[in-house]
Amino acid sequence: MATTASFETTEFRRSFTIETDELLRKRLIWYISIWGGFSFLSLIVTIVMLVRGVDITNVLADNWQRAFFIFTSIIWFGAYLTALLVAVGRRVSTQSIVYISMGLIMLDGTLGIGLRVMDMSIGPTAIASFVFSHFIACCLFPWTIRQAILPVAVIAGASGLSHLIIEHDTLLTSLALTAALALSTTPGIIIIAIKHSQRIQKSTNKFLNKRYGMLRQELAYARQVHEALYPAPRTTGNIRYTYKYEPMQQIGGDYLYTKITEAVDGKGEKLSVVIIDVTGHGIPAALTVNRLHGEIDICFAENPDISPGELLEKLNKYVHLTLAKHSIYATAVCLRVDHDREIVEYASGGHPPAFIRGIDGSLRDIDPTTFVLGACADEDFDAAQVEVEFMPGDSLIVYTDGAIEARSIEGKMLHIDGLRRILSAPVMPGIENGGQGQWAERILNEVTAYRGGIPPDDDTLTIEIYRPIGAGEAQGAQEAQAESEPVPEPA
Description:
This protein has helices spanning 2-51, 63-89, 94-117, 123-140, 145-166, 171-184, 186-228, 282-302, 308-323, 401-404, 415-424, 439-451, 471-484; strands at residues 240-246, 254-261, 270-278, 330-338, 343-349, 354-357, 363-366, 386-389, 395-399, 460-466. It has 2 domains: 2-209, no CATH class; 229-484, 4-Layer Sandwich (Phosphatase 2c, domain 1). A hairpin with an 8-residue loop joins strand 2 (254-261) and strand 3 (270-278). The chain is rod-shaped, with a radius of gyration of 41 Å. It has a 5-stranded antiparallel beta sheet. It has a 5-stranded antiparallel beta sheet with strand order 2-3-4-5-8, with helices on one face. By secondary structure, it is of the alpha+beta class.
């Protein structure tokens, strides 16, 4: 969990940095074009007037002052032009662009201090210009609060030292002027604080929406891959099966595997079935199912005639050695229907009891034969395979615990007895073959109705494996079942 959170934090920082880089470069170009262009035009006008000897109200009366002003103006222009070329050229990192943007503001403040130290009456105006340029920068640049404060701290400190050491002001005066300069930048810093908080929130929402969309796409694809592992229902032949699956989330940890040995000259038809219920839900459980699917494929590839008991033992060994160390276990049913022998070979590792429903409505329970998979080592695990008679007209009902653990609106659990009542209910007249091939869907519908619209708390998989009989036999069995039902006394 910590690794996932760290990965998501890294992803967000990378996304936020890219967004900041794009915004900062764009805003820096705006700042240089607008503020730099306006200031540059003012400088050009001032320099032209100085060169022509025009009196500009004795602002720069001394030749040294004029030389200093022209020299610093050239430096200022060169710095802004270089910053513009760098921002457009994308030759440096985001952090460098941040330093460049702060550097331009500090350059304005430094020039203002220099003009003031040279006893130019334009000096105070230049300091005020620094405050204004800082305010504009705070409105434009995607700075952090620290990045907005740093230029102010540097210029305010330099200004205070200049007042105290070079301009020989008193300590109190120097401190007062320094505090006044720092306080004058407070509106810009407040704006930065609000903007930065809003930008983080906006970027977070954008990042989460993007990740959510990607996750939905990945889940949809994962569900396609997961459902592709399931076999298609078999509605022809001497041995048939149907199933219904309702995962708690988009994908889940219930799984069905089938393998058919086709009949040759009407003999030898067998159906092997594996039903697995992995602990947990969602993606982790589905990933575990994928691993078990591969292990089952290997088992049948190595031994196509592997018995249910032997297969269950191999699955237990795999879960115990690879998954139990991560507290992942599974219940499973391995069975094989032998058409010629009219039996079901059955081994169940901690799975809920299965039922064989006769065409006459009778029920036979098949209890678990051993422990949950992964709970004990291979040498301590005995599948204890059993054989059960499976005649024409019989339906073998297997399900995962989501069916019997369904809760009503009042919180009452359905339990095995509730499922037994569903299976014992008489088949409505007109239903073909005594309801064979419809029990998986009927059970899931009954479970859904029992929940009363409440979303499922667990994955639910229901399977019906059946040997069909003729329509006439089915009708006779239904009539026999109806005759066996007690006749209600008149009210």
